[in-house]
Amino acid sequence: MAKWIDGEGPQNDIIISSRIRLARNFQEFPFPMALTAEKSKEVIKKASDSILKGNTILKNDLKFIEMGEISNSDKQVLVEKHLISPALIEKPDKSAVMINSDQSVSIMINEEDHIRIQCLFPGFQLNEAWDLANKIDDVIEENVKYAFDEKIGYLTSCPTNVGTGIRASVMIHLPALTMTGYMNRILQAVNQIGFTVRGLYGEGSESEGNIFQISNQVTLGRTEKEIIQTLIEVTKQITNKENDARATLFSNNKIKLEDKICRAYGVLTNARIMSSKDALKSISDVRLGIDLGIIEDIDLKTINTLMVDIQPGILQKIQGKNLNTNERDIERASIIRERLKKG
């Protein structure tokens, strides 16, 4: 089980996870979009050797996976666990990933950049994720020469990553702000200060289950610590507003809120067919109910695990077979009923 799903982190009632991603490129190679198959293999070897042959604790904990050597279903599982991006599997013959045992670290090779170091922690732990990502970055840089400019910083395939090459983000559950109609104001305010709000699976995805990803857009002209500190402050403000909205809903519309949450729980524990979108919507309400003490005997770990395990790829992996849409909806409902009855 991935650490960010299974672990308990600070303020995990609202903040599900914290992530730091660093984009880096090797000086002597073209960017991945211009790499030949032969050069791609050279990049993969150079990247893996810089860690796996280094004198580090990580080398004994990282599993090396070439995208062309695993099934499409296994690729989808890695995407749904937020361990790789959808872009990495678009060119499986040229890409790879290294993942540690608790899945808090994944190092993508030949995605948009030669290396993308990701550290993913449960709850509100941006500084902790940054410390680990920075250490891994230092280990790699001891053995390779990055594409770097003294004035600009790290050079990347996309101009939006030039400079620090950092993307700091939090995955956050905001049902009350959505219910009260304040999310649009939050979106506008965040965009004005150089941050962006995306859905569950990042750029281009929907905010299903009232889950949002908040991350920096600016990587140039500010240090990594400045970017992280600003995101911490923004996240605290949003968390405070979410808590205020929850308190207002509970105080002014307690019976209506309890009815909404209990209906969602009833659907999840009795439905025989459930799409992922409908499931996440009801799970969001139940998660809110747990946080407010309306629903007892179910913990956040169970809910977090469910949010991931009901995704199409992971669901099929659990069942050990390919399923069509209708079969997935039936199995999804069955797993939800079973897990919630166990509490």
Explained architecture:
The protein is α+β, with helices and mostly antiparallel strands and 343 residues long. The chain has 2 domains: 3-243, Creatine Kinase, Chain A, domain 2; 254-342. Helix content is 46%, strand content 16%. The protein has 12 helices and 10 strands. It has helices at 3-6, 37-52, 72-80, 126-141, 175-179, 183-192, 224-252, 254-270, 276-291, 300-309, 312-319, 325-342; strands spanning 15-24, 62-66, 96-100, 105-109, 115-122, 148-149, 153-154, 166-173, 195-198, 211-216. The protein has an 8-stranded antiparallel beta sheet. A two-stranded antiparallel sheet has the order 6-7. Helix 3 crosses helix 11, helix 7 (224-252) crosses helix 8 (254-270) and helix 9 runs antiparallel to helix 10. It is globular. The mean pLDDT is 92.
The main sheet comes to: 8 strands, antiparallel
What is the level 1 CATH name of the largest domain? Alpha Beta
> If classified by CATH, what would the architecture of the largest domain be?
2-Layer Sandwich
Distance between the terminal alpha carbons, to the nearest Å? 18 Å
Radius of gyration: 21 Å
Number of domains: 2
Overall strand count: 10
Q: According to CATH, what is the topology of the largest domain?
A: Creatine Kinase, Chain A, domain 2
**Class by alpha and beta content:** alpha+beta
